[in-house]
Amino acid sequence: MIYALIACAVLLTIIFIVIRCLKGGFFALFTKTLASIAFVLVALISSYSKGLNLVFVFIILGLIFGLIGDVVLDLKVIYKQDNDVYLNAGFASFAIGHIMYFIAIILYSNSIFLADVKTFYLICAGIGIAGLVTLFIGLFGEKLLKLSFGKFKLQVIGYTFILSFMSAFSILVSTYISIFFIFAIGITLIFVSDLVLSLQYFGGKQNSKLLITLNHAIYYLGQIAIATSIFFI
Q1: In sequence order, which residues have a C-beta less than 8 Å from that of residue 154 and are 6 or more positions away?
Q2: What are phi and psi of 148, to 5 degrees?
Q3: How far apart, in whole angstroms, are the C-alpha atoms of residue 196 and residue 194?
């Protein structure tokens, strides 16, 4: 059942990407919404088969906020006059989603490490890595990647910190808890997809079919991996 759902999620992602590249508009938004609902369903069915707990609840909440962000960002494409509103809403939705993922990791790692202080040390290490990545992007990102963040620079810096922290932290946790590796891969793929997305939004390449394909393919693989990780935790 779970593997059939994963295959369905991948298929819906492919259909969406093709329609997004060829046509766009409301039909692209509709198929994108279906693709996003699919990864939420993968998580729901996985949690049902394993037995629902707080860790799974927060992972599912993270995926739901991802779904909301997906819809909001495509509304940005359709309603160009409200670009700023939808872009800020997208930042907020995905950031909240990552906070949900963070809570899930904390709950799970504490259940494994118990009274150990490993979680605290891993958080500190993640903050350090994220700080360096964010500092680099903030100081050199625009020049190196030929981007212009403009009035969204603060949002980009804040969001970069959240994404890089979650990628580093989830990878560090997975070195101790190997079954969390799939989740860590998913988080990291989302980080990579947003790097591609920045080339579109802030590099004047929003209509590049190559970047559209890469961004969505990497992003949906990431969310599907996160949803699937529930089945293996």
Answers
A1: none
A2: -140, 100
A3: 5
